[in-house]
Each structure stands twice: as C-alpha cells, then as structure tokens.
Structure prediction request, 291 residues.
Amino acid sequence: MNTLSFSIITLLVAMTSIQFGATFAKQLFPFVGTAGSSTLRLLLATVILFVVWKPWRGKISRAEIRSIALYGISLGSMNLLFYMALARIPLGIGVALEFTGPLAVSLASSRRIGDVFWAVLAVTGILLLMPVSDASTALDPIGVGYALAAGVAWALYILFGQRAGASMHGGRATSLGMLVATLVVLPIGVFQEGAKLLDLKLFPIAFSVALLGSAVPYTLEMFVLKKLPAKTFGILMSLEPAIAAISGLFLLNERLSLVQWSAIGCIIAASTGSSLSMRHDTVPPLIEAPL
Prediction:
C-alpha cells in the first residue's frame, strides 16, 4: 500500500471515529444532558491531550494567549451547540447543517465566479432541511437553529484556530484551546447537572466520546495533513455528512427521508466542488473539528 492510499484510509478512519464519538455522546444525553455530556467530553479530552502533548512546556506570549482564548471559546461553543442540536435532530442532518460553517469559510475566501454555483447548491441543501417544507416538518426548528449556530462557531473555530496554530505547534495549540473550551462549558454543565457529573458509571462512555471524538481523529489528521494534497484532503472531508448520516442510521436507527438525503447530497457536492476549485498552493483549512 502506497503513502497516498494509506493516508486516505487514515482520514476515513478519523472521520468515522468522530461520528462514533457523536453516537456515544447521544447515549449520555439521558443521564447528564447535553451540557453535562459536553463538559465530560471536553474535560476528558483535555486530560488526554495534555498527557500526549504536554503543552505547559515553553513560554507563551500575550498575543498567543489571546489567540488561544478566542480559539477555545469558539471550540467550546461549537461543541455545546452541536450537542444541543443532536438532542433534537438526527446526527446526519446535524453534521450537514453544521458543515455549512467551514464551507462558508472556504467559499468566502474564493475569488472564482464558478464558486457561486457551489454556494447556491449549499443554500439549496440548507433550504431543503429547513422545517418549512412537507418533507422536513418532522425536524425540530430549535435543533436546526442550534446546528446552524454550531456551524457559525465552527467557522470561527477555523479562523481563530489558524491564528493560534500559526504561532505554536498544532498539538500544543489544540491542547490549550481544549482547556479554554472546558472552562467555558464547565460552569454550565455543573449548574445544570451538578453531582451527576461525578457518577463513575458514566465515565467509560464519556471516555469513549473523548477518545473517539478528539484524541484518535486529531492524532490521525495531524499525520494526514502532512501527506495529502490540499484538494484531496478537502474532497475527502466533504464526505463527513454522509458518514454521519450512515452512522446515525446503523448505530442510532435514525432514518432520513429521500429529500433529506438529497439535501445532504447537495451540501456534500457543494463542499466537493469548492475543494476542487482550490488552488494547488492553497493550505487546507482546519475544517475538521474534534466534536
């Protein structure tokens, strides 16, 4: 197996791992709610990343602290909002709607007239998922709103993450950003769930969420980003809403209508088209998020 093939398989494993982490997270919701699940996931992910990357080593400037703070706030907000969406709508639809955040960043940075088509296609997918048509009336409008808000947070995560990663090692930046994200969500989780967060029976599932949703995929993607061309990385990442929908179907028994599958297809096609139009010298954006 050559390096390219191995890298492609590795990235697919990373994306699948993230969706498995999301399915485990949904199993936590009945016990500690969305805020509690987000708190446990971020807290344990922080511990794992601190053990792996040891981010306390070395000095950090005031400018870097500001970048890490903004990065961490957007990361924590994204995770909490996404979990709030998952409590109300299927995993595949939640990921597809949230995916519009990084897609918007990619399209906004483009200067090609042809990318207008991909933007229209993405908007078409979003409109098909809006709970205003007969095909999507079953979708909770609040859940849809949370997913779109998580997409905005994901877009900010990309922008702030690029700034934070530009001044220090990616592993250190993510570890410190995850710590800030934990501090953002922790008070909400403690306020809503209190002592429930200390139930040791929940820790195996919570640890699985943190491991599959953060530590494993992030480590794999650190390797892949150095091996895959930017276009290939972007095209493969575009498959994530489909992987989420399939995971939701087989692991959570979340069945989607034909129109909803078509909407997800529109968003995937828009993301793929945007990736294909990237220049050869373009650095791939941080479109994967440790959810």
Summary: The radius of gyration is 18 Å. The chain has a mean pLDDT of 87. The chain has eleven helices and no strands. Residues 3-53 form the longest helix (51 residues).
